[in-house]
TrEMBL record:
Annotated positions binding Mg(2+) 1: N87, D103, D107
Functional note: Has nucleoside phosphatase activity towards nucleoside triphosphates and nucleoside diphosphates.
EC number of this enzyme: 3.6.1.15, 3.6.1.6
UniProt KW Hydrolase keyword: yes
Coiled-coil regions listed in the entry: none
Organism (species): Psychrobacillus vulpis
Catalytic function, reaction form: a ribonucleoside 5'-triphosphate + H2O = a ribonucleoside 5'-diphosphate + phosphate + H(+); a ribonucleoside 5'-diphosphate + H2O = a ribonucleoside 5'-phosphate + phosphate + H(+)
Record family assignment: Belongs to the Ntdp family.
Keywords: Hydrolase, Magnesium, Metal-binding
DUF402 domain mapped to chain residues: 18-156
Record-given protein name: Nucleoside triphosphate/diphosphate phosphatase
Top-rank taxon: Bacteria
Binding site for Mg(2+) 2: D105, D107, D120, E123
C-alpha cells in the first residue's frame, strides 16, 4: 500500500458497505503518513455528498485515521473548545492520493469536557438490513466502540491533551510553506 507524504494534499472518500460513495472531502493536508496512521488537517474544504449536494467545512479540523482500528476521528477546533466526531468505519486504505474507508453509520460526538453521545443507531440498524452487513460487523464495531470509550476516558490518541496542540502546530507550519 502506498503511504501519503507529509505536506501532500489528498482527498478523503467515504463509502457505504454496498460500495457506493457516501461523501468526499476535496482537500486534506497530510501531517503524518505511515502504513498504519494518517493524520491530516483541513479548513474550509469542499465536501461533496453522494447526491451531489456540496457544503464547506466551517472550522479547522485535525483528522485521525488508523489502518487497524474501525473508527476515524475528526477533531473540530472551535472557539469554545475541541469537539470530536467519530465515525465507526472500516480501517482506511490509501491509493492514488485518496484515503478511503467504509462508513458504518454509527457516530460518536465527543464534547470538550469528554462527555459523549452515540448517534445514528437507527441508521445503523436500517443499513444493516438493507445492505446485509455480516454478523461479524456487529462484533467488530462493538469491540472498537469499547476501545474508543477507553481512549476517551483515558484521554488517549486524539483525545490526549497535547494531541491537538502538536498537530495544529504542524498544520500551521505546512500551511506557511504552501502560502
Amino acid at each position: 500500500m502506498a503511504i501519503p507524504t507529509e505536506g501532500e494534499i489528498i482527498q478523503i472518500h467515504s463509502y457505504k458497505h454496498n460500495g457506493r460513495i457516501h461523501r468526499v472531502w476535496q482537500e486534506t493536508m497530510v501531517l503524518k503518513g505511515t502504513k498504519n496512521i494518517v493524520i491530516g488537517a483541513n479548513e474550509r474544504t469542499l465536501v461533496i455528498e453522494a447526491d451531489g449536494r456540496t457544503w464547506v467545512t466551517r472550522e479547522p479540523s485535525i483528522c485521525y485515521f488508523h489502518a487497524e482500528h474501525w473508527f476515524n476521528i475528526i477533531c473540530m477546533l472551535r472557539e469554545d473548545g475541541v469537539y470530536y466526531y467519530v465515525n465507526m468505519s472500516s480501517p482506511f486504505v490509501y491509493k492514488n492520493k485518496r484515503l478511503k474507508y467504509i462508513d458504518y453509520d454509527l457516530d460518536v460526538k465527543v464534547f470538550p469536557d469528554m462527555t459523549y453521545t452515540i448517534l445514528d443507531e437507527d441508521e445503523y440498524d436500517q443499513h444493516k438490513k438493507e445492505m446485509c452487513y455480516p454478523k461479524e460487523i456487529d462484533v467488530i464495531l462493538d469491540r472498537n466502540l469499547e476501545k474508543l470509550m477507553t481512549w476517551i476516558k483515558q484521554r488517549r490518541g486524539p483525545f490526549a491533551p497535547d494531541f491537538i496542540e502538536a498537530w495544529t502546530s504542524r498544520y500551521h507550519f505546512y500551511k506557511q510553506l504552501n502560502d
